[in-house]
Write a structure and sequence with these properties.
- Strands 2-1-3-4-5-6 form a six-stranded mixed β-sheet, with helices on both faces. Strands 12-13-14-15 form a four-stranded parallel β-sheet. A three-stranded parallel β-sheet has the order 7-10-11, with no helix packed on it.
- The protein has 27 helices and 15 strands.
- α24 runs antiparallel to α25.
- It folds into three domains: 230 residues, Rossmann fold, CATH 3.40.50.2300; 230 residues, Aldolase class I (TIM Barrel, Alpha-Beta Barrel); 127 residues, Serine Threonine Protein Phosphatase 5, Tetratricopeptide repeat (Alpha Horseshoe), CATH 1.25.40.
- By secondary structure, it is of the alpha/beta class.
- The protein is globular, with a radius of gyration of 26 Å.
- The chain binds cobalamin and iron/sulfur cluster (SF4).
- The site of cobalamin has 42 residues, from α4, β3, β4, α8 and α10.
Amino acid sequence: MHPPKHNRRGADFLEYQGCQTVQRSGTTSREYKEMTTMSNVNILLISPSSMPLFEQEKLLSHENKQIIPKFETPTGLIELASYTRNKFNDVKFKILDYAKELHMHYRVLSKEPPLSTESFYKKHLNNIEMVPDIVGVSVLFSSSYMSTLNLVRYIKEKWPNVAIILGGGHVTFYHSTVFSDSDHIDYVFVGEAELAFEQFINRIRLHKQGVIDCINVDDIQGCYDRSKVEMDLAKGITKGAFGENLIDLDQIGLPAYDLLDIDDYKHYSNAFNTGAIGVMTERGCPFSCTYCASMIIHGSSIRTKSNQRIIDDLLFLRDECGFVNIVLWDDLLAARKTKFTELVNTIVERGVNKGLTFSMPSGLSVRIMDNNLIDTICSLGFDYIRIMIESGSEYAQEHIVKKKVNLKKARDLIAHARTQGVKVETNILFGFPGETKKNMQETIDYIKTIDVDWIQVFSLLPLPGTEAFHQFAERGKIDPSNIDWDRCGYATRQFDTEEITAQELTDLVYDVNVYTNFFGNRNMLQGRYERAASYFTDMVLNKYHFHIPALYMRATAYSKMGDVDKAKADFDLAVDQIKTNPEALRLWNRYGSEMPDLRDKLDAKLLVNVAPHAPSVSAGFTLVVTA
Ligand code: B12
Ligand code: SF4
């Protein structure tokens, strides 16, 4: 358990009496308190975009205007800031959310001159009305790492004396290489950071006050400087020790939403077209899915905020900030069933959820859920829920993915959720280390049996820290010390395995997506045409106008609903896209055989390259659509 605040501060101070040149032995605790109220530490926290640097460059230079930069609430940073402010009243924060700024820039891209990433980054640094003592960058995503390395250069150019610190998921697993990758980084935080950061900030304060003459972090668990890493490496230790987890999450208080440009999040944050705010009610997960880094970053013990705290936060977000969409980012929602049920019942009884729509994009765990919990969750006001499956192979569930989903239970939960009127989605991953084509086919066969509105289909990408990452490294498929983070991408895999080549995997993922969500769309098969059409619009056509399977299926849905004009408009659009857009033509050539109603609308020369039915059969899979 974390020691009481005053004890730890006292201990921290005393500790330094011996090892630092400034001697203050004999200082009373009153004097200590007075000294510690005078330091005024300025901290700038930065959330970089998860978009790789090379893509940012293409976007800002107008080379590719189609890439849509996303942003979400930087939850880690506002929780860290709030916790720290609660501990020290002389610490001032600002947040610069580059992901948000990039999105806002994208919205006016055509009115802006082409820019380099350097001028874009510098422009926003120049807007900061503060001279920071510390700049902290949150590197949650491996894809942010290269842009962060550039950014820290600009930061040191502007503020040469600032201490630059990094934290977040990616550097948690690569803490030691950070210092060899950049001379500008001073400290790295491994794992959850509130407690380590508190100790660190206290040292910065003592240093500012002249109480200590240097900052030594050797004894701060989870915090590293260059020399501490070098000492570890000399002893052969490459893995960072994680910061102690915060047990009482209520110590965070109301996350520092005041540091965000609330209106931008309210209107443009990406989870909904209408904007949303992220909320985390719990941290940690005791399960061990082999593809997941979340439970490693936050640990296996579940810690939750109190129900009162969660309710107060929701009321603040709704009534003071005007949010209507709440995104829950918990690792394992409803892990404490009774507490969660009480929370939702109170929320509903008190009308706290009135005017709010909830979502949980990272999904619900089949192991945790039961019908009652699904009902409880639905009563909160979810537009859609995601019941996470990942693999339809019983063998893979048990031995490869280790998610241990009971596939029958998952199917029943989905069917039950439908009775609540909520939209139901799931996630599927292909390409686990050791997952055979037989296992993959089992997944394809399984997903034809579940009545979901949509399936997110992905390639398994080994994320640093995960079991899958280590397995691929052991098999020599990836070299952990030589990965181009800017190019590793989250969409496609770059390496072949014994089970499946990179190209086969990419094709399989695309084909399964197209065959399950479009040609084998459950809503279409069950006659729920209106819902099907709205999915094609919201999930696909609002972003990708060239998507021929979506246009074709929406046209079919309209025609089944008797809306001849709308159906004709979509068919015409599809024909036009095939004739004018190379991506549309590619889709036509690959999937044209599934869209017979377009054939007589196209010239003969556009019919010759069309592939036979179910193209992935060439890689050994059966994708036939069944009702
Ligand atoms: C919200 C979220 C998103 C949001 C974006 C978040 C954002 N702010 O930009 C969205 C929806 C966009 C997203 C997308 C994706 N995500 Co995501 N996401 C998350 C999620 C669920 C929560 C992050 C969060 O807010 N946590 C809550 C806070 C409290 O924790 P924290 O961020 O870890 O912060 C603490 C510490 O890390 C530390 N810390 C963090 N930053 C800093 C900075 C400093 C200076 C210090 C001192 C400390 C510090 O202190 C904080 C407090 O203790 C995490 C999983 C998780 N549970 O963390 C995955 C996670 C970060 N996502 C992940 C992935 C893989 C993805 C996707 C690829 C998913 C997909 N298949 O599409 C995409 C990739 C985005 C892209 N490039 O296109 C991985 C990242 C792994 C990696 N190495 O890249 C994670 C870890 C989940 C997983 N699968 O294991 N994601
Ligand atoms: S249940 Fe979710 S959070 Fe827990 S290990 Fe699996 S994927 Fe990660």
